Amino acid sequence: MLHSRGLAALILALVFFSTLHAEYLYKDDVVKNPQFEEQINSIGAELKAKTGVSLYLVMVRDLDENQSIADFEKQLALELKEPAVIMTFIELKQKVDILARPVALYEHFNKAQVLSPNATFIGSVVSAIMFARSFDEASELISNRGGTILPILAERAKGDDIVSKYSVAMFNGYSDVAEQIADHYNVTLSSSAGSGSKNFIDILRAIFYGIIIWAIFIYVRGKYFRQKEEHENV
């Protein structure tokens, strides 16, 4: 009898521990990778222990009809205890957002930077030239560079590489937010990605946008010389 009760108590404790350990990857209908889950929960648990802030990652295939990602996050926030930050990825809509409760938590990390479509200065300048409609908008695009999610999601991938791309992008963004929150509290996370992965991504983006700028230059130069030749032949 005592042995059975002890075994039951052990099983209950293990189940309880597993539930706690898995809480920071709050929902995952996309990646479904045990190693990815372990990495996210490791960072989340350390962040919670050192700062008191819970950082949740939610990854779903799609939302209900006419439901916005903001409404979805607000609904999730009702289930979670504050202080909490919720990072949400909607696969079919290719949307990412971050909700903080209470709102004062937004001061602990730079949401605009994390969700910037540009990872590097070169990329932000190109975006400002191509898409900005005013000087203020261009300045904002350039100042909010350093995106750690959207530049990776924008990369082309096929087959199983698509899911790998999602896991890399969301892990990178999750680590970025966790590190910024930790920095606000003057603590260090031993389980986070650190600056190494960000520097590597910055190098890749610099090469990527460098190729784009070079291609534009070649195109413009070729067009100029063709027009010049046509003008001379007239």
Brief synopsis:
With 234 residues, this protein is α/β, with parallel strands linked by helices.
Characterize the structure shown.
The termini are far apart. The chain has one domain: Roll (Diaminopimelate Epimerase, Chain A, domain 1), CATH 3.10.310.50. The protein contains nine helices and four strands, in the order αβαβαββαααααα. Helix content is 60%, strand content 11%.
Q: How many individual helices? A: 9
Rg for CA atoms: 23 Å
Q: Which residue ranges are poorly predicted, with pLDDT under 50 across at least 5 consecutive positions?
A: 1-21
Looking at CATH, which topology would you report?
A: Diaminopimelate Epimerase, Chain A, domain 1
Beta percentage is 5-15%
Overall pLDDT level: 79
Helix/sheet category = alpha/beta
CATH class category label: Alpha Beta
The largest beta-sheet arranges its strands as 1-2-3-4
What can be said about the biggest beta sheet? 4 strands, mixed
Helix content: 55-70%
Total beta strands: 4
Report the order of strands and helices: HEHEHEEHHHHHH
Number of individual domains = 1
Q: Which CATH architecture?
A: Roll
| Shape descriptor | elongated
Distance between the termini: 104 Å
